Amino acid sequence: MFTKLGIYSIIVGLFVFLFSGISNFMRADNFWVDLTISKFTGEYSDTIVEAVPVGFIQDGLYFLVYELPFAGALIGLGIVFFIISAIVKEH
Questions:
Q1: For residue 59, how far is the Cα from the chain centroid?
Q2: % of residues, the chain, pLDDT over 90
Q3: Is residue 36 within 8 Å of 65, Cβ to Cβ?
Q4: Angle of helix 70-87 versus helix 2-26 axis, rounded to 10
Q5: Which residues are CB-contacts of 3 (< 8 A; sequence separation ≥ 6)?
Q6: 53 contacts 87 by C-beta, under 8 angstroms
Q7: Is-contact 5 83, C-beta < 8 A?
């Protein structure tokens, strides 16, 4: 199950990366340009980052929510799913 989730996540991440790259190349102003997690969470982005009181974790969350492209987050999530599938053996 985690292997399939990893494959799907990486495929969608590459799809988003492709369209984001095409939009940046064409200098188009659309949904794919500068797509981050904060675009999906909207006004709750600050709440997500400030929910953790530890400073260095807030810095990491700030990077994940505001600066990391969404395609990078999906590809990273796919890699995490592959690691989980390697550790957890399904019978």
A1: 16
A2: 7
A3: yes
A4: 160
A5: 81, 82, 85
A6: no
A7: no
Which token pair is 20? 């984001």
pTM over cut 0.85? no
Query: What angle (nearest 5°) sits at the alpha carbon of residue 47, between those of residues 43 and 50?
Result: 140
The three-state secondary structure class of 15 is: helix
Task: Give burial (CB, 10 Å; 0-12/13-18/19+) of 32.
Answer: middle
Q: Phi first, then psi: what are they for 69, rounded to 5°?
A: -60, 150
Q: Is 69 helix (H, G, I), strand (E, B) or coil?
A: strand
Per-residue model confidence as pLDDT tens digits over 50-64:
777 777 788 888 888
Specify the DSSP element, H or E, that contains 49: helix 45-50
Residues 88/2, Cβ–Cβ less than 8 Å? yes
